[in-house]
Amino acid sequence: MICVYGAGSIGCYVGGRLAAAGVDVVFVGRERVAGEVRAHGLTITDLDGAKERIEAPRYETTPEAAAGADLVLVTVKSGATAEAADQLAPLLRPGTPVVSLQNGLRNPRVLRAGLPEAEVVPGMVAFNVVHQGEGRVHRGTDGRVEVQAHPALDAHLADFARAGVPLALHEDLVGVQAGKLLLNLNNPINALSGLPLRTELSQRAYRRVLARAQREALDAYRAAGIRPAKTAGADPRLLPVVLGLPDALFTRLAAAMLAIDPHARSSTWDDLEAGKPTEVDYLNGEIAALAAEHGTTAPVNERLTALVHEAERGGRRDWSGPELLAAIARPD
Ligand SMILES: NC(=O)C1=CN([C@@H]2O[C@H](COP(=O)(O)OP(=O)(O)OC[C@H]3O[C@@H](n4cnc5c(N)ncnc54)[C@H](OP(=O)(O)O)[C@@H]3O)[C@@H](O)[C@H]2O)C=CC1
Ligand SMILES: CC(C)(CO)C(=O)C(=O)O
């Protein structure tokens, strides 16, 4: 049995694809989602027009449903990882593979600390998923599920491939996570803009904010000896340059970056919209922390983190690009 622990957008999508392919999946999550799934089943769609239905998925709301799982996919937001590990620790057999399918850099470390007897495997989801209510989850971009190669996963690879969510294996995921984080530095910008991702990224002023956040991240990575992998098909060092191009040129040269469902938004926007704390401390906040650890600073990422915390407390979520560009240039 595969357990999806923290089944929201990503968990329902990946677990739903597996369940639709006949894999034995148990979803563990909140009553809010369980109620939807009980009433409507689970419907999985994507930007290519695919649609799958799971009439009666097994969606449970207590940790005990994870007991004895052969594989656990952790899909809680980063702030809930330590709690998830504490809940899973007494329930899993030693050696159970536990894959973190989360953004940021530090979740695998947190899981290892809380689950010393499990085989924790770093992973990452490169595509966007929107939870549309009534048990519907929609993949709004292309992208793969990336994981670190581990023998404990071998028995499951065929299931993921058959389900249409093949695991892309890497010898070392740190560079892949660091590359993905460069894209996730856009999460607060998107959330603060109040716009869908495609509309936001089509505007140069927002992209210039992102480019600045990425330059700080690249400096912090260099100081920390982290080599980010190719991201969105590009050398990470070129990303800020491409983002800074005028709109007409960007639209032509970086069409792949705009191949996003017109309604898709960042998971940080989802959290603000739902009135929940965001993951920003594990995204832009992680870059600020990494910079500080290595004796430099990342003021743009610090400022974006602070603005998202203000938004969590009811602050503005309708920043225009030029306003945001001015705000990151200004000290607090
Ligand atoms: N959504 C997206 O497009 C993408 C997201 N990601 C990453 O994937 C990860 C998951 O994101 P996403 O699916 O959007 O998050 P969601 O908030 O949609 O889903 C996580 C779910 O887990 C629940 N949860 C939290 N703690 C527990 C617990 N201890 N036991 C059971 N359930 C729990 C949450 O409930 P509650 O909210 O009540 O705490 C929530 O329903 C994040 O790291 C995110 O950054 C990566 C790529 C794209
Ligand atoms: C796919 C992407 C980059 C979309 O913003 C994401 O990871 C998120 O929303 O958290």
Write up what this structure looks like.
- With 332 residues, the chain is α/β, with parallel strands linked by helices.
- It folds into 2 domains: 2-171, NAD(P)-binding Rossmann-like Domain (Rossmann fold), CATH 3.40.50; 176-329, N-(1-d-carboxylethyl)-l-norvaline Dehydrogenase, domain 2.
- It has helices at residues 9-20, 31-40, 81-88, 107-114, 157-162, 174-184, 187-193, 197-201, 204-224, 239-243, 247-253, 267-273, 284-293, 299-312, 321-329; strands at residues 2-5, 25-28, 42-46, 51-54, 58-60, 71-74, 97-101, 119-125, 129-133, 136-139, 145-148, 167-170.
- The strands form 2 sheets. The protein has an 8-stranded mixed β-sheet with strand order 5-2-1-6-7-8-11-12, sandwiched between helices.
- It is globular.
- The structure holds NADPH dihydro-nicotinamide-adenine-dinucleotide phosphate (NDP) and ketopantoate (KPL).
- Residues 103, 127-128, 183-184, 187, 197, 266-267 line the site of ketopantoate (KPL).
